[in-house]
Structures are given as C-alpha cells and as structure tokens.
Design brief:
Blueprint lengths: L1 E2 L5 E5 L2 E4 L4 H13 L4 E8 L9 H16 L2 H12 L3 E8 L2 H4 L8 H14 L3 E8 L6 H15 L4 E9 L3 E2 L1 H17 L6 H4 L1 E5 L14
Parallel strand pairs: 4-5, 5-6, 6-7, 7-9
Antiparallel strand pairs: 1-2, 2-3, 7-8
Helix pairs in contact: 2-5, 5-6, 6-7
C-alpha cells in the first residue's frame, strides 16, 4: 500500500500503483464508526422462490420446501461470516424470505401448520435468525388455501421461534378486503393469547399490509 501526494491511497498491481478512490480520512472515519459508533450491517436476507414446490400432497410439498431451503440457504451464514471477516464490518442477522406459502400450497388440504414447521426446521438447520414467507395475499379475495393459512397463523407463530407471517389485505388498485381485515383482528388477538406467557411475541412476528411491496426483505413482513 502507498500514500500518494494527493492523499489518495493506492494499491499495487504488478509494477504499478493504482489509485484507491478513498482518502485516509474517509477510511479512518469508517474505522471509527465501526469501533466507537457500532457501525454494522443489520441484516442480509436471501430470497428463495418456492414456485416449483407446489402440489396437492401436503407432506410432499412440506418436504420440497424444506429441501429447497437447505439446498440454496445452507451456506448463507458461512458466507455472511466470511464477508464480515473480509470487510471488517459485523453482519448482525442472517435471514431468509420465501414465496408466500398460500401460493405454493393452495391445492393442498390439511393443516398448514406443518408447512410452518418445515420453515422452522429449515431455518434452524441453516442457522438463520428468521424466515419470512408464511404469507397470503388476499386483497382480491380468499382462496381455500389462503383461508387455511390465515387460520393457522396463531398456532404457527406461537409454536415456532423463527417463522414470520404476513397478510396483505388491500391495495390502492383493488381496494380493501374487509372480510380479511375482520379476520386478521381475530388472528392477532388469538396469536397474542397463545403467546401470552412470552409477552405476546407472536404478534411481533406478524404483519398485516396494505400495498405490500414485492420482494420485501424486511421482517416480519418479508416474502420473496
């Protein structure tokens, strides 16, 4: 490494020194922010499409979901830690967001809670903090799959640690699904009651949207 007369740091490439586009002051400022002001990267979130995991058999869908998350997410934490070492900035959380499960399991009958368990098991296996995508987009109305998923949210959130849920009940274009609004009031209340011994933590893992953004990486409303 070499300091040029214009106070621009350079690095050696072969026999030449090439300018580095940051001044020493900027580098020292960054170091100060990391060491004294706790500068960090709050989260990295991996989006995984589950559109190829659909089917009519709930058990097979569960297995497909679990296997795909492990296949694409198994090295997420390791890569995050490698980036931390390479750049010297801590990455606090590593998370995953998947396709809204109501779209994937819409043809399945049975208890959708087992899909939440698949997300929980996969998240635990790959070591992420949270996994989002236990979600339904119902602003245009309910399908049977949407209803099953929404009705299972209180149990799913109260019996898992990492699963986050989201329901979009309205958009500017389509309007507001008032039946969904009424149902979500009951869902939130039940979720709070089921996790009352833990300060109603289930409600902190649930987002009710209007105009949910696509590919939202932010928990608890994340989905891919």
């Amino acid at each position: 490494m070499k300091i040029f007369s214009d106070l621009c740091i350079g690095f050696k490439k072969g026999e030449d020194f090439l300018p580095f586009p940051y001044t020493p002051e900027e580098i020292f400022e960054t170091i100060r922010m990391v060491e004294l002001e706790n500068l960090d990267i709050r989260t990295i979130t991996l989006g995984i499409s589950l559109l190829d995991c659909g089917g009519s058999d709930l058990k097979k869908v569960r297995t497909k979901i679990y296997d795909k998350i492990l296949r694409f997410g198994s090295n997420l934490v390791d890569i995050g830690e490698e980036l931390e070492r390479a750049y010297g900035i801590p990455i606090i959380n590593k998370r995953v967001a998947v396709t809204p499960l109501a779209q994937i399991a819409g043809n399945c009958s049975g208890d959708y809670f087992y899909l939440a368990q698949a997300l929980e098991d996969a998240a635990q296996e790959i070591g992420v903090n949270f996994i989002g995508g236990y979600a339904a987009l119902v602003h245009k109305g309910f399908t049977e799959g949407d209803l099953r998923l929404v009705q299972s949210i209180p149990r799913a959130l109260s019996q898992t640690e990492r699963v986050c849920a989201a329901v979009n009940v309205g958009t500017t274009k389509a309007g507001i699904n008032m039946d969904a609004v009424a149902m979500m009031g009951k869902v939130i209340k039940e979720a709070a009651e089921l996790s009352a011994s833990r300060s109603g933590i289930s409600c902190a893992k649930l987002v009710v949207f209007c105009n949910a953004p696509e590919d939202n990486p932010f928990m608890a409303g994340a989905f891919h």
